Amino acid sequence: SAALSSSLLTASSATLLALLLGIPAARVLGLRRFRGRDLVLLILFLPNVVPPLAIGMGLNILFLRLGLAGSTLGVVLVHLVPVLPYAIFALLGVFERYDESYELQARTLGANPLQVWLWVMLPLAGPGIAVAALFAFLVSWSQYILTLLIGGGQVMTLPLLLFSAVSGGNPTTIAVLALLFAAPPLVA
């Protein structure tokens, strides 16, 4: 129960942060062409190419110095490493096809920036944002190595509990944990 709630909290928080950072980044990368854009995209994609253990070991040292190792906040922040690129790349396609003229028309008709965001941008980009949120949640939900390294056994999530149970636990418990772990991807 604690591992399930910890997994839900961690994945939801990482998803929210990934969207808060990913929407503006994807918007700029999708709507604007500038020198170095391809390099930025490559740098954003690199965390998904580099082995998680290599990233995790380096971040573990940093998080130990910052006092974030062994904390839920540290685990949420380290989950951003693999989650943020998925969110940005899912949103990139949305904003490459996005028509800013609707926002201009709304501003011309007197809408303030918040109204433009709520009544124009969100409805137009909403389905893409939902897909990005789903990817972000599922990537965070399934993180094992980064959670183990940064959480240091203090933050127990469902993947950690499942992997420890597999090494010598009750088969019924393992089956229940596996079903809980597989539930979000199956529902999605």
Topology of this protein?
Blueprint: H1 2-31, H2 37-45, H3 52-66, H4 72-96, H5 101-108, H6 113-141, H7 145-151, H8 158-166, H9 171-187
What is the compact description of this entry?
79% of the residues lie in helices and 0% in strands. The protein is mainly alpha-helical. 31% of the residues are buried.
Number of strands: 0
What integer value in Å does the Rg equal? 19 Å
Low-confidence stretches: none
Give the CA-based shape: elongated
Oligomeric state: single chain
Characterize the main sheet.
none
Return the string of H and E elements: HHHHHHHHH
Span between N and C termini? 22 Å
Strand content: under 5%
Structural class estimated from helices and strands? mainly alpha
Helix percent band: over 70%
Number of helical segments?
A: 9
Average pLDDT number: 92
Structural commentary:
By secondary structure, the chain is mostly helical. The chain contains 9 helices and no strands. The chain has helices at residues 2-31, 37-45, 52-66, 72-96, 101-108, 113-141, 145-151, 158-166, 171-187. Helix 3 packs parallel to helix 7 and helix 4 runs antiparallel to helix 7. The protein is elongated and about 65 Å long.
Descriptive tags:
188 residues, mainly alpha
